[in-house]
From TrEMBL, chains A, B:
Protein name from the UniProt record: cAMP-binding protein
InterPro entries: cNMP-bd_dom, cNMP-bd_dom_sf, RmlC-like_jellyroll
Organism: Galbibacter orientalis DSM 19592
Pfam families per record: cNMP_binding
Domain Cyclic nucleotide-binding residue range list: 30-116
Amino acid sequence: MNHFFQHLNKFVSVTDQEFQEISTYFEVLSLDKKECVMLAGNHCDTNYFVLSGCLHMFFTDERGVDRTVQFAIENWWLTDAQALYHQKVTDFNIQAVENSEILVIKSDKERALLARFPKLEIYFRSIYQIAYGAALKRMQYIFSYSKEEIFFRFREEFPEFVNRVPQYLIATFLGLTPEYLSKIRAK
Amino acid sequence: MNHFFQHLNKFVSVTDQEFQEISTYFEVLSLDKKECVMLAGNHCDTNYFVLSGCLHMFFTDERGVDRTVQFAIENWWLTDAQALYHQKVTDFNIQAVENSEILVIKSDKERALLARFPKLEIYFRSIYQIAYGAALKRMQYIFSYSKEEIFFRFREEFPEFVNRVPQYLIATFLGLTPEYLSKIRAK
DNA sequence: TGATTTTCTTAAACTAGATTAATTTTTTTG
DNA sequence: CAAAAAAATTAATCTAGTTTAAGAAAATCA
């Protein structure tokens, strides 16, 4: 919970007292590795914040292969932003990569929270702006470089990450097969 | 300008009087086809809103090929969100695909605007949330389908768009070569 | 500790899509 | 309208990365 308080305060000023009230809008949840919090086919009305551990959001493609579209480690928010915004059914799953502690907030609570503390709009605007910028950067990588280069640049930039997460998840996140990733690493 | 007023009012309530004041933060700019408003290598401190026409944001990859990462038509915002947020140099260009009318706002003005009208945080949070959601959806498409399928699905979903924008721009946006796009269309 | 499950590796055959290069069609412009 | 520039097509060649299939290593669990 403390992580979240600190993260909030990077973007807006929140007093201890305010945070006391803010935290009543959330639930804390402990997840075991492989446990899921969001399932394809369900209505998406929840947003998740990672206190510790690691989650990933993935979907199952037409041939039955799981593809990770987003990882989230400490201090990251994760949800199907589109489905959440439009109150639609999602076709993504969110699953714990490691044992994790997360904050959970339903979208009606989130709306109430924002109404009660308008300055948190600034916080969420920043979060989404950063996430959107990162997504465009990722597009740029995918279009710019060969798969081999994408992997090496990714490992360069996020070494802790590559050590922490199973290789085959990294592979689908970067858009290559585990076999090919294994091959290019064997140099 | 009217387009912008209507777009704002889809997300927050803004009176005519308020809008009068809001509009003083913006500049209106007319662009000829092919004209650029953002250039790789420059500091990114501006955000753009398309009133009419069409822009695209692209970068030049290592081999000198231009790659579109984002289109923007009427009622879309466009900028390098990451560079804007961190006040960094951008490596994207923004160029008019057609003759266009756009709104321009510098980031210091944008900050001032948000300070003056806090409810606009809601507007921008929504904009970025939607854009982020769309970016993840696009990742999903790119990883799910063959390039051939990506094109046909894209054309299915945005037919006006495909008719309006040169094919070779669509091609780099979808991550395939103009030659291959031409080939798969020839069926 | 041994058994089971999960993750990673290796190698051969195959193909979607890139590359190259030349030509045609369409659009723009003076 | 003719000339130039921009956009689209075609076809042959080539390769980065996938697929398939099987085995090895590591991690988990009872």
